User: Fold these one by one.
Assistant:
Number 1:
Amino acid sequence: MASFCTRCCRTLTIVTTLVVASLSLALHAQPDPNKVLKYAFETAETGFDPAQTSDWYSAYVFSNIFDTPLTYDYLARPVKLKPNVLEAMPDVSPDGLVYTLKFRKGIYFADDAAFNGQRRELVAADLAYSMKRLFDPKTRSPNLSYLDGKIAGMEKVRQRQRDSGVFDYDMPVEGFELIDRYTLRIKLVAPDYNFLYILAYNGACAIVAREVVEKYATDIMAHPVGTGPYKLASWKRSSKTVLVANPGYREEFWEAEPNADDAKGQEIAKKMRGKRLPMIGRIEFYVIEETQPRWLSFRNMQHDYIDRVHPDFINQAYPNNKLAKDLEKLGVQVSRTAAMEVTYAYFAMENPVVGGYTPDKVALRRAIGMGYNAPEEIAINRKGQAVAVHTPIGPGAFGYEPDFRSRSTEYDPAAARALLDVFGYKDRDGDGYRENPDGSRLEILMSSTPTLRDRQLDEGWKKSMEAIGIRISFPKAQWPDLLKESRAGKLMSWRLAWGAVYPDADAFYLMLFGPNAGQANHSRFKNDEFDRLYLKARMTPPGDERLAMYRQMNRIFLSLAPWRLGVARMDTDLTHAWVQGYQRHPTLRGVWKMVDMDLDVQRKVRKE
Amino acid sequence: MSAVLNQPPSVPVAAPLHQPSPGLWMLAWRRLKRDKIGMTALVVVIFFLLLMAGSYTGLVAKNWSKEVGVSYANPSFMAGAENLEAVQAAQKDTSAKVPFVDLSDIDPLAPKYAEWAKRTAEIKITDTPRADTLLFGGDKWGRDVIQKAIKGAETSIFVGLVAALLATIIGTVLGAISGYMGGKTGDFLEWFYNVFTSIPYILLILAFAAVFKRGLDTIIFILAFTGWTGIYRLVRAEYIKHASREYVKAAQAIGASHTRRMFVHILPNVSHVCLVQLSQHVVQFIKAEVILSFLGLGVPVDSVSWGTMLAEAQSELVIGKWWQLVAASVSMALLVTAFSMLTDSLRDALDPKIK
């Protein structure tokens, strides 16, 4: 029911867009090639084939080049899906198994040699092809897990590939049924209401053209050709990437639905609504790994934008939660949002020291959790640029509740010590550290990497654990090795961070779902009730019923404490005065078509 | 060269008959005493060694890990300066205080709630007051930087000294065997030596550091096992030279065993080489320890060394907190320079050619 209603709203939105569009015919300006937006990544991109990459930085580039069937409203919070190259939101069958997607006509790929001089229209088969690519072992896609086991009939194609060694894209698949040139019917193995989010995720559903993939084959990372607002002009690996506006981009106008109480969003919408997209003619992405030069190139106005200002510079940019005076004078604008992520330290549930579900083991983990000084981590290590999380769900995702607290996640060293005393973890030999109730030695081994950042977190943990009398040490190894060992279940405890690609608690709870042990479920947590609710929630449309399940899952998680929850980082993005309409979106990566630049303001501010 | 060395150095050529002749070490000490720079360096080195001993026994810097100041407390000579970090850290959580979620229906700990609450009420946690300024500033956690530097000196010097001693022992023993024995044993040891020198030094250290477990002893072993090669080479050359000398032949004639000839007869005559190498390696290893700790492969999390201080300082410098960098680098520069100069003076003092 709920999803039906949202669909009505979508249709209304499109009608409004069309009306606004016809009113603003006079404003039909092409993107201005003099509007050049420059900014720097802190980590290098890997390449621009959506199926082969899973890093943020590549996505920051290619999501301006490719379209996904669905996208998110730019300003609506909590996030809201809307059709992108579809005529309307997909039609979902009442059992949640069949999704029918009607593509808009007259959307063309950017010109490329692969099309032999013809204009190439986007058709329904392109999406089926793009999604099948993830299953092709040759693609080696890191994003396969988002589709794996979900599409009906794909297992047959993979089986044939295993038998014959050839992945047959032309083999008919039950799950991808082409009704006509513009209509695709996707059939799932089991109902999954999060599939709509997958249709907006550019790692799984960015639409590529088969001719292009086949022509460039192994060089496809350097040849992204899509239907999006920008196309790749040049690429110097790990150094400079240039996008220019796609001249053949479809006629599209600025539209967003900010919340009524979102003053900044309303102001942006008022200024931008009805403008033809895209507005900026050229985008240059640089790679500056060192934090200081990256900050300075923004501060000196060489760059127009900086995202996620490093905590080391936060007191120069945003001291005491206010924009710095000198930046204010320059007209710099701030966009500050909590990232849709959680950091956590997990305890291996199969480990004889910290694992297990008996009250004494639960008490030990809960006490460690309460004894860890997370507020200090936020204040000192993260310089206040983070918020504590009290559920395993990141801020902004469906199921996240900002006003929620639990005893398990609250720093309370007195309660931690009391709990250890009550369950018999006492210091028997007088060395200042507690022993197990049976008198054996108790030592927590929390793995970490030999980086300065981890050392600082180690220090915090060490201090906290000393304060409640728990011995802790930190075996060191490189991150990829730790990941391997962790998946094999060999670590006692490790700190991780997880950012979700779709805004639903499901994207976080999958780290606690029993069958995911050895993959995303590092702690190998297994609780039958939790697993049952997890599967049931997937088959329940978003709404109160699903929220209730998520709440119950959270309570199970908190009572058994397989993790010590940490924080979600605050992202502080700054734009200079002449950049208009920027606002960080929790999941949307390609936002530049929604942003404009005022060259007069740029000249004026730079001169001063 | 040969004119002097043909005489066993411990027997001065023109010593008056009834006066006890000063030995090699006495002569060396006299020469060193005349060297003003050398003596100053010696005083500095002794000062650091005393500091190390004091810190080891807990006489100084015992409470280095106590958080006595606010985060990045200013040095006392900069008392009024702005400290945004401390302001930030002192900010209390202002989020709405909603009641805790009730877990009692599924909580395995529920039966013990009452007992737990009672015990909690008995435990008092007191906050220690924190100073706004410290003598030479505080670090991120509010620890005194001077105490940290002293404690760091203990780690760094201890590692440097012990590792250098070990490396010198390994290098001398192997060099002695190789140089004295020659033949197949010598060839074998040469090969062994070549294997170690064929790998770039820092890479070798990093490889060892990646394989072994963390700890102070590990660092010492790593440095010793990778650093002995230079000493080996020098000692071997000396032994080749001395093995055929008359005094060794004489020792052989009166029936001294190989071991006795190697370590009782020849060793004292080449010991000045070893000693100079020893002090040179102390300097080298202090620096290597700093590099290792800087790269995160060094001392464990509950101890501090100059290297970890420098590693922390790199991110502090950009926010204008320079004191930790200065404290660590000045003390390190002072010790390393003093040690290098002392080495230089020792070399001069111990060289029997210079009278």
Number 2:
Amino acid sequence: MSPLVSIAGLHVAFNGVPVLRGVDLALGKGEAVGLVGESGSGKSVTWLAALGLLPRHAKVSGSVRLDGRELLGAPAAELDLVRGGRVAMIFQDPASALNPVLTIRKQLCEALALHRDLQGEAVKAEAKRLLDLVGIPDAARRLSAYPHEFSGGQVQRIMIAMALAGNPDLLIADEPTTALDATIQAQILELLSAIRREMSMAMVLISHDLGVVAENCDRVAVMYAGRIVEQAPSNQLFADPVHPYAQGLIGALPPLDGPRRRLTAIPGTVPDPAHMPGGCAFAPRCAFAAEPCGLAAPRLAPIANDRTVACIRAEASRRALLGMAAE
Amino acid sequence: MGRYFAIRIGRAALTIVLVVTFAFVVLRLSGDPALMILGPEAPPEVIAAFRKAWGLDDPIWFQYLDYFSAIAQGELGRSMRDGRPAIQLVLERIPATLALTLPAFFFKVALGVPAGIYAALHRGSSIDRAVMMTAVAGFTVPSFVLALILVLVFAVQLGWLPSGGQDSWRHAILPIATLSLGGAAVLARFTRSAMLEVLGQPYIRTASAKGVPWRKVVTSHALPNAAIPTVTILGFMVGTLIAGAVVVESVFAWPGVGRLLVVAVANRDLAVVQCILLLVAMTMVTSNLIVDFLYGFLDPRLRAKGAHA
């Protein structure tokens, strides 16, 4: 099956400082993929670059294909049809993501008018239906309200309604629950999965919360310093992480069952993008680093069916993990 | 909403009282109008008679109360020089001043706002840098220097335009240009930074992410938001329509309110100065009230606060 979106060799630099250093990622129709990694690892930038939403001074190269059509360097008119029409995006801080001086109706109908062949009353009816769908009570009346009259969770629901306006094939949810209370987080994630199932829409869930990703995604890609270092089906990644960084991330999570254990922290800090070490970017923090790690950046290579990892010491780290588990 | 404006109107009234009081006190402490108008050689009994006639002998608090009770009856005093009502002298000059400041206001907006928007949209381009350099120059050069440069170039060197007076519309060109350039520079800088601030907001990215073409993102998402801070500075400019041309009118010998003010201050013509200052305070305060009202219109968040206040 040909992928819905395929990203290959995506590089992004801001003022000469590389932020993405060759991202490869493919996404099937209707698939839910989680993108995890710490702040600055390039999770959001990957998708902002793919949709041409980065500021002009960002230098983007590589390839992003949607159904085989190249998006990088595509004419603005074509990108405007893709954005919100085929690929929609919702953002981290819902409170500032809606225009404060325009009513919800205006913002929703704008998206509908752009991507759907609807006229007059039909637009309003559809706007109301979308608000109902995302669970905004009293939708008909609330359409004429302004963003500041809603709570954070409600605004994120409205953002989701707006994203659904164009019936997209893919929804990019960029940290959709980070700014929300824990109880609201669960509701929003529940809403996202329900809608995804109903509309058989693909989704990319960008998060630094591994738990959120594990529950909502079929597959996970782990990013570190502008590259994907490991990707695997969710259950496999959490049971058996191979890349030392992925191991570190999962080792830092408290287990829900089993005996209490000391959480491990990854030593050191993320390298400064302006002064990336040569070779593997994780090597300076890696317990398994060997001499060749500093020579060349490892490429993503398959290690099993549907699993890839970018680490030349994968075998050693995996053995170590298995050894620890056996103890 | 009603209370929101009641508070604002109350504050506006207080501002006017403070301005008038300040002017009243400073004018009376800074020199004797009798000496200024009659000259130091005047005989002492003439000076004494003048003081008595204008009530300058009374204690200052008495003069102050007297002045306010007169204002309350709509009496703004008479000029000490020719005895005509001060308000009449001032009103006569207003058309001349507006003949400069109204076109200048139009040009400020017509030049400054588009230049600021354009510079913000093409941030870092050579046009942006040129606009900003002009703007910085335009607002660091004092208006009398700019006025003199314009006179030097267009009146003295090229001989295209008169250097002063009010005989024809050609006499108005240089004063209007002086006022417009400085104001346009301020407005361009302000609009640019307001626009840049808005363009960096997440909701602009949201609009682009839902497929709104860039031109429409600018017109229907960015501009309505950038208008909010820009209205502040526009309100300030409206406030200076009556007496914002003091320096320019002096340089170009333009017989407007500004020049009347300069002459009246020099002569300690108390009633005239106070009358002008009262008028200036009232226009400033009125334009601020209009700005407050426009905020409520432009920004639904403030509208809501007003309603709850």
Number 3:
Amino acid sequence: MDQNSATYEGQKMYDPKGWWDTYVFSQDHKVIALQYVCVALAIGLTGMFLSLLMRMQLGFPGLFESIDAGSYYQDVTMHGMIMVIYLLTALFLGGFGNYLIPLMLGCRDMAFPFVNMLSFWMYFLSVIILVASFFVESGPTGAGWTLYPPQSILEGTPGGDGAGIILMLASLAVFIIAFTMGGLNYITTVLQSRAKGMTLMRMPLIIWCIFLATFLGLLAFPALLVGAIMLIFDRVLETSFFMPEIFKGGEVLDYGGGSPVLFQHLFWFFGHPEVYIIALPAFGIISELISVHARKNIFGYNMMVWALIAIAGIAFIVWAHHMYVAGMNPYLGFFFATTTLIIAVPTAIKVYNWVLTLWNANIKMTVPMLYCLAFLVTFLNGGLTGLFLGNVAVDVPLSDTYFVVGHFHMVMAVSPVLALYGGLYHWYPSVTGRMLNDTLGKIHFWITFIGTYLIYFPMHYIGFLGVPRRYYSNEQYDFIPQSVADLNQFITICALIVGLAQFILLYNFIVSLKKGAIASKNPWGACTLEWQALESPPGHGNWGEQLPVVYRWPYEYGLPGAKEDFIPQNVPDEQIVKA
Amino acid sequence: MNNYPASEKAFLGLNHAQVFVYVLMTVISILFLFITNAYLFRMNFQDWSPVPIPSLLWFNTICLVLASVGMAWSKSGAKASDHQKTKVGLAMAGVFVVTFVSGQTWAWQELNSSGYFLSSNPANTFFYLITALHAFHVLGGLVAWFVVTFKVFKGDATMLQPESVGLLGAYWHYMLLVWGVLFAMLITT
């Protein structure tokens, strides 16, 4: 393969030859981004389908004979893992990261296009391994997405004694390798390949967010990798890293002396930063969208950047708030409760700044703006319940109840997905050159927004009643009133409606490819560089002969004396058209 | 906001490959940090019975040091445009690293045949896991060594690639440093 045929400003360009090179084994960041988006959305739909199966059992117990306790646990586990890792992490960093970093920074491609391509194919392989576990004899693992030993690798847990858990761990290991390849590329590109004039403090906030989320991932995923490797050892070679002495039916198993809590530490040292690996890119999308669609510069750019850096730093010292009930020294619990509350400060700064950006702004109620507003209230709701759970004394009674399920779905499932959808609506014209249908977009938005509240708000009440999460059936317990069953039915019906509504988005995506209104080059009037490319959608190499030069920050809206209400980053002062 | 193009400057004066490899080394450090943390945590449990460290590991360590010396030799050759010196250094580094990895596998066999099986004690498991993870990363360096060596042997004196050789050398010194820390931990605990 000849990669050297085109050279711009000393940077060698990858030159695709033929269909396979252009669309399949492509090294162009935009194609790789689309590949990430398509695979992540496909596996995400699978994850959503699994959640609907769970909801069917909870709302209408016993209606489907095929959903037994084992398959229910498998659905719970795979739903969680798919959504957190294979959908959101991959889509935000692999999809948005790949598409936006080179375009927004004014470079031609990632620093290492070949490694970038490898990153996608490793990700694809990890998804294949994950999906393969559905087809092995005992099915996928049903250990819960946290994969806590000892139960995750023992007989009795679905997939525990078969290949299910091994495939899960192997898939995670491959995913981590894929992420590392992609992540090193994002870091190098952000640090090295910015256009002339694009200083770090002129980068769009979403690039800051992706950059910091990538750092979090690169530093946190090794903990999961170590945990996964050691757990594979325990499962396959019967070592005892995590396995204590275990008696089964009066017999002593070969294990002994290990510490399950060690796994919990390793898992959550990864697991909590993972929340921010998902949340930071969502913050970034909101920062971009809110400024563009409210026609106003982002409030407190510098403060936003420092708040992000603070969040990224503190994210590493809060992990054990997931382990309050694991037998923790109270002083340690106090420490982690304090750090957990402290991380709310920079997060609150961001929320205030978004709200202040909206203050007195010329808000356009476009679909992306609707998603921004929905994100703000949802993230606030989810964040507030986090204050409950971050405190040890409140967490202990609420631990492992539906309150926790309601909380984390609000804060790290619905919120990022709302940001994700906003981002998809916003950047669809840049990718395809066409607009998405606005009416369909609004219908999809309202069903999704109201629907998710109807699903997750009641879960907080169910949690207050003490209903445990993860239970296959709630029927045999005296302390659970009939109203919980009624509420569960209601939630299930809402979940089915919201689930079906996602096909409106899919339909809109596919139909708009051919029939959507032709988008102008910069349909939203944004200042950032991805809308300033010569062609729309941007061609291979992004910028034609000349790389852009950056003269200003990315949020130059409503400049006094200017004719337009936005000045793109690559327009020098002398070219600004006066009013 | 400044309203003029800022000067274009690479981050800390590094090139793309250097940033990539230095960040990669940070990630690998984190990986080994976790595994050593887990080791130090687990060794306090009652069932821990330390592994006798095979004396072969000292020989292997010397090999790894010599591999690093080879890389340093090669780098100084590349800088001075001394083709012969670069090649000799690279060859030396390759031979000693292969000897190191072979020596590690030999040490495993030695331990295994003395009854220190992988799963019979957590100390054994950690010993095998830590040395294997390190050897795996050394082998990754060997792949990069093949690429650089191929370039150097194929090219003429004007294509000595001092940057590639230097960066490869940095990774090999780093692998030696990691081994130094791990080995010190293994023999002192």
